[in-house]
Amino acid sequence: MAEVFLPTPLLPLFPELTRRVEVDAATVGEAISQLNERWPGFRDRLVEAGPALRPHINVYVDKERAGLDTAVGTGSRVDVIAAISGG
Amino acid sequence: MSQTIVLVGTRKGLFVIESKNRKKWEVRGPLCESWPIYHAVFDKDSGTIYAAAASEWLGSSVWRSSDLGETWEQSSEGLTYGDDSELKLSKISSLSAGHGRLFVGAEANGIFKSSDGGKTFSLVTTLDDQPGRDQWNDPANQPPGHLGISQTMQDPDDEKHWWAIVQGHSLFETTDDGKTWAPRNKGLRADWPLDNPEVGYCVHCLVRSPIDGSRMYQQNHVGMHRSDDQGLTWTEISDGLPSEFGFAAAVHPHDKDTFYVIPLDPGHGRTMPEGKAAVWRTKDAGSSWEKLDKGLPQEDAYLGVLRRGMTNDHEDAPGFYFGTSTGQVYASLDDGESWSEIAGYLPGISSVEVAVV
Question: What own/partner pairs with CB < 8 Å and gap ≥ 24 does B240-247 have?
Fold first, then answer.
């Protein structure tokens, strides 16, 4: 299992979604797909056509900048960050 | 007792301004988790509010509420050109509801449809066979704002008949539900060179008389225009106005010759001329214009109003409403003769629509 920490703007969009969720996935993309199965529409909020992470969404696996193909290990910490931007 | 609800799309969420008598108003919001709302509409057939939202972080989605804004859900399922397309959806910016469906205008230029109440969407058209199509999705050719399809308008009497504006490029009409299209810009003016005289016109806002569908008006980047043949040809009616530039327009629901615009300075400012707020009205289909400013600020009032920023209800004594890019909403219940502020400190306003429920 890996731990995924989500940005707070996502939480009100999906019933019972919590800041910290657990996934059993081999990559970041797989982790997002798993969460999409539990909360339909979740993937669209983080991933755009390509597929690619949305421009202002940053993902870190064990503190290293990651993409959709980045490997996720057992016990990994995955942080999803909505970049500080806009006004 | 009926209730009037004014839907105000802003940079920081949707606001609902509601009243039982159109005199005392209450504001609810921000709704839709404060996502930027480009346009919100009320579908009278289903009683649903829809809001087109585009978040810098979380992408575009259509919010929906079936209880007048008390609770909300959102979906973007199907709002995509696909992983392999040359087109990328950057935002959704316009909505129209009717005949049991919802149209969504997007940038890059395309129109999506939902037939299940905003739960899922499918692509209707990207107007691929139309002149100008090879240029209008090129970022170098896009006007500021990058709204893409900035308006769709449905014919309430014919579900296969509707219009679409490609921002900065043209008005188009379909009579077969989006399968084929024709440019409808004959008679419009362009103050720039055109490769093809059929297209290349900057149509900001299209309105149609509810009592005579052949009568249309449009606020264009260069001039106000009237059509007496349902958009087949256009005649400029700008004489008498302080500026040929503006975004918003409204047509009187009971008088096809009465039409309202909000002229703006055409430069970078795009605010009301001389810092004096005013709506302008013609009662003779554009032969003459009168300035309506009673109740509106007349000193240092550099207000802007965007293309979806003015609307009206269809009551016997109709209400007219407009919202500014600095967050004020004004209403008039006497055909525009006088105005009162019904909200003063909202975020910058993108759109104003109204429904009586």
Answer: B240/B288, B240/B289, B241/B280, B241/B289, B242/B273, B242/B280, B242/B291, B243/B273, B245/B221, B245/B270, B246/B204, B246/B219, B246/B305, B247/B204, B247/B205, B247/B219, B247/B304, B247/B305, B247/B306, B247/B307, B247/B309
Q: Which residues of chain B lie closer than 8 angstroms to A49, CB-CB?
A: 80-83, 85, 88-89
Cross-chain Cβ contact B59/A50 below 8 Å: no
pLDDT single digits (tens) B25-74: 999 999 999 999 999 999 999 999 999 999 999 999 999 999 999 999 99
Put simply, the answer to whether B58 touches A86 (Cβ < 8 Å) is no
Domain boundaries, chain A: 19-82
- Interface A-B, measured as beta-carbon pairs within 8 A, has a size of 49
% of chain B residues with pLDDT over 70: 100
CB contact under 8 A, B83 and A51: yes
pLDDT at A87: 64
pLDDT of residue B13: 98
Q: CA nearest B63 in A: which residue? A: A13
**pLDDT tens readout for residues B302-329:** 999 999 999 999 999 999 999 999 999 9
Instruction: Tell me which of 3.10.20.30, 3.40.630.10, 1.20.1270.10, 3.40.50.2300 is the CATH number of domain A19-82.
Output: 3.10.20.30
Residues of chain A contacting residue B74, judged by C-beta atoms under 8 Å apart = 13, 41
